[in-house]
Amino acid sequence: MIKHIILCLFFFSTTAKAMDRNWFNENDIPSRELSANFWTVYGVQWLVYYIDQKDTIKEHGSLDSWGSNIFKTTFDKDDYHYNIYKHTFVGQYYYLFYRSRGYSKRDSFLWSFVSSAAFEYTIETLTEPPSHQDVYQTPVYGAILGFYAESLSEYLYESDYQWIRFFSYVFNPFRILPSTKDMYFSATLVGEQKTVGLSYAF
Amino acid sequence: MALGLGMFAISIASHAIESQTTASMEANENSGQKEVLEVKQDSRSETPNSKPPVNASESQSIQSPVETGKGPSNSEEEIPTGKIITEKIPNKDILDGHEKLLKDIHILMGLGVNQSFYRNDSQESVTELGPSFKADVIYLINQDWAVEWSGIAAFKEFSDILVWDTLLTLGVRKVMGPSYFFNGTWFTRYYLGYGHSVAYVDRDALSELGYSGDINRIHFGGEVVGLGAGMVWESENKSLHFFELNWGIHYLKNREAVNIQNDVPVVVANDVVTDNSRAYHIHLTYGVLLF
User: Who contacts A6 (Cβ-Cβ below 8 Å, separation ≥6)?
Assistant: First the structure.
């Protein structure tokens, strides 16, 4: 169990390192913004998963399964309604969120992939093993749907009619978010007083 | 010593001001061909709620084509306004003068039709034509080669039974050269991976699986290997289109009967298929390069 936790921590440490690399950061977004955006998504993933799967977690979830399921990636037995439609629908929000934070299309896809993998391998393993289909389809299909949702949203936003512009927010809800100038956890030392907090500025 | 913890600060400052200005620059490709490329002033500001440049130097660094390696600037050209802001073109090698074909990661998406031919030691059968959706994550290595991670979701009917295939494969692509009859470039692809086929049976359990209750689906799994050929071409608006024809073999090696219990799929029986069952898939796809 301990080694699994260490492995997870290693995974996240390497993810954090990757944030600084240009390969994951085409537009030179500050690394603390990259971290903040990823961890924001990760926190929301935990929250939504807990709310949606509360009973399943209580019934089947355990720390043992959380650790051991990581190494049991399999083809799940879900229906296509779930595997294709729902995962694609969720995947587009990963993509659109990162797009709204100023990431390029390419980077938005890559970070959607990281976020999706983080969910599959460190959150959902609480109750079930990761799924090959989900690992691929959520970020890839999600990026495709997000790509067109964003384009449609842009088109609708150009309309002269307010009620049509409303639908641009429906297709891309993250349009409502203002630009993130900075969002990060900070630990500052002022005199002898330590301060730890969350700063979120637009 | 006082220890203060838990300061939660939320500050709201200025909102994004959309940068309406675009810069135009000439790109001098390796082939000597000059193309006018639009690069937005702030490469991160493709969406309405992203940030404007924070300082003059950042703006200048993006405007300068010298830094992007695309060629000399043309200071006499007027800066167009009101044009559509396009994707930032990173400082990377461009293939064949196509500004969207970078030596980088890309996503291709296509729709098409598929058909399968099933065969085992005792019988053969053919499915109806059905729709398929194909997505490829490709990485262009150089002018000739690319690696790919592909997924196909295909649907078809066989004796009124819906069959849903999911093929996840890794492969390589090789550019074969220009077409003599069409304004495009031929390519081939070779792939292998794993396939997962689901038959929606919704009937009494097959006795051979040794399960006495009802089952809703039968899942088949096994390796997939195949090859394909296609053509990619550039449209007038510079977007890349492709069509491809793929042929693959899906070895059906294991079988699981699934029963839906309280909306949860439960494997109620499984066995190893020993009758050399295999499915020969044909996929015809038309699609575009998203980015």
Answer: none
